[in-house]
Amino acid sequence: MTHPTDIPRDPSRSALPTHLRTALQLVELGLPVLPLREGKVPFGNCRTCKNSGCGDRPHMKASGPCECPTPCHGWGAATTDPDILTSPAWARAWRQAAAVAYHPGGAGFTVVDLDNADAIAWARQNLPTTRTVPSTRGEHWIYRGSMTSRNAVRPGVDIKSLMSYARWLGPGTGTMAPLPDVVRALAVKEPATARPTSSSITVPEPAGGGRCPHRSPAYLERGIAMAEQRIEEAPEGIHRTVYRMFLAVLSAHGRCGCLTETHIKRLFTAAQTRGESLRHCENAWTNARTTLGM
Questions:
Q1: Which H or E run contains 60?
Q2: If you ran DSSP here, which 8-state letter would residue 211 be given?
Q3: For residue 202, which phi and psi values (nearest 5 degrees)?
Q4: pTM (predicted TM-score)
């Protein structure tokens, strides 16, 4: 597929919300799209799907069993079906939408998100020239080909492709180049040289014979729910927010034996809905445990 260089206009859609009109134009060109709310984040899951209650694999609506009609599951809600986009279940989201996003990997693209002038200068010196789209604070460099997504591969540089979303900021300029090895290499995690720990998602060993001093499951539930909400509503600095929430939950519940793999999965799902990769979640969990001496 060729990245859009122009978007056709359809006068018959003039009564539709602006972002829905844009989305319908993009799906005609083969881009899987979804609405974003304020803060450039996806709409939260519905009550049925919240905390993977629908039985889906976290953040994998596209290949999991969930058939929710609403724009659930973050990037997994991206679709090229105009009937879904214009369905009553999506109407409220489009009325409240602040932007349109697309799933680059689903269209066979990779977006190198350059967040500041220093990142752009680095890209101009190290990456092949390709299609470029101006962003709020920097530029999106778009390559033909998909790969693993990873945030913060360098200062001010994120990679958005498979299992991720990027805001639609316009068609951009320039000729799209094939995805180079130098970009693929950015997503390969270097071996850790500091803070070596055991498995990142291990449930801490209970202290005090496994007796929970909180005495009420509601206390743990409130803590997990609050952490999920803070992660879902974080306007920016998602890496820091995820780490702080993991740290807070572990600090309160990590030693008493009441924290289970189900609770950890809920936290990871909330973070992945905001675009965090599984690797980043595992790293944040490991670092939080190390900080607390677990």
A1: none
A2: -
A3: -65, 135
A4: 0.63
Residues 111, 166: contact at Cβ < 8 Å?
yes
In tens, the pLDDT along 258-267 reads: 778 888 888 8
CB 171 within 8 A of CB 165: no
Distance CA 271, CA 41 (A): 11
Helix, strand, or coil (residue 46): coil
CA distance 228 to 226: 5
As a whole number of angstroms, the distance between CA 268 and CA 280 comes to: 10
Alpha helices in 187-293 (DSSP H): 217-233, 238-253, 261-273, 278-291
**Are the CB atoms for 75 and 275 separated by under 8 Å?**
yes
- Cα 66 to Cα 73: distance, rounded to the nearest angstrom: 9
The answer to whether the CB of 187 falls within 8 A of the CB of 158 is no
The Cβ of residue 141 has, within 10 Å, a number of other Cβ atoms equal to 27
By 3-state DSSP, what share of the chain in percent is helix, strand and coil, each rounded to 5? Answer: 40, 15, 45
Q: What is the crossing angle of helices 238-253 and 261-273, to 10°? A: 170
Contacts of 276 (CB under 8 A, 6+ apart): 151, 238, 239, 242, 284
- Rounded CA gap, 111 and 142, in Å? 5
State pLDDT tens for residues 65-116: 567 888 988 888 899 999 999 999 999 999 999 999 999 998 999 999 999 9
- What is the three-class DSSP state of 137? coil
